[in-house]
Amino acid sequence: MKLLIICSHPKDPRKRPGPFDRQFDSAWVDRFIKHLRNERDFCTGCGDRCLHCRDWRVKDFSNDIAGIIRLPSLLPVLLDKQYNYLPDKLPPHDILIAIQIHEEILIDLPEYSAEAGGRAIIAPVEAPEWVSRWAKGKLIENAEKCGLEVSVPKPFCDLKPGEGDVIDAFIEHFQIGKPQFEVASLDGRIARAFARISAPCGNSHYVAHSLQGCPVNDNLQFEVSHYWHSFPCTASMKQDSELGDTILHRGGQIHMECFCKAAGIKDNPVDTKKSGA
Fold first, then answer.
1. Which domain range does residue 193 map to?
2. Which residues touch 232 (CB under 8 Å, ≥6 apart)?
3. Considering the entire predicted model, what is its pTM?
C-alpha cells in the first residue's frame, strides 16, 4: 500500500503574512513523517533513560511512502489558479494524506488522486482552522464523485475502522489511527503494554511504554493523561465548535478511554483539562 503526503514547506521566518495571506506550518506533518519512518531520534520523552523501545515497537514504513509534495507555506487567502501549485500528475498511490493545506487546493485533490490511481483521501484536522465545515463537505462531495473513500478525522487519532475497506486496510497496514492497546497485568500492576494501533504522531507508543509497572486502578486514567501530555500532543488548544471542546483535549480523552478499556478499567470520565490533557 502506497501513501502520498501533501503538506506545506516549513515556515520561512523571513516572510510575514500580509493582511490577505494565510500561513501554513509543517510542524505536525513532520512529526507524522518521522513516526512513519521510525527515525531513531524522533521520541525524546525518556531523555537520558531512553532504551530506544521504538526499535522493537514501531515499524519503518519509509518504502511505503510514494512521495511527499510540499506546497508554499505562505499563500493568498483566495487563489486564482490553485492547480499551479500541484504537479500535472500525482505519483501513483493508494492513499492520499492532505495535512494543513489551502482549502481551495484540498477540495480539488480527489480528481488528481483518482487520475493517479488513488483509492482514498484522509484529511486530518488538528486545529479548527485546518478544514472548515464548507471545505469538509466539498471534499467529501468531490471524493464521492470520483469514487474515492474519504475521512476527515478530528483529531487524526480518532480515525476509526468502518469508513471504508481501503481506509480500514490503511489503519491495519500502517498501524495508525484511533489507538488500540494490548495490556497484560500481574499482581495488580501493568506487566506489559503495547500499542497495536498508535496515534499517527506516535504518542501511543510512548504512553504504553511509560505505563509499564503502574498500578491497575482508578488512578490509571490520570497516569495515561500525564504521559500522553509529556510526549506531548501538539493539537490545538483553540475551542472547536464542532467538538464543543479543544481538539487537544479530545486527543487526551481518546487515549485515556482506549488504554483504560484495554487495562480493564471501567469507564470513569474525568476532566482532562484538570488532569493536564
1. 180-275
2. 203
3. 0.92
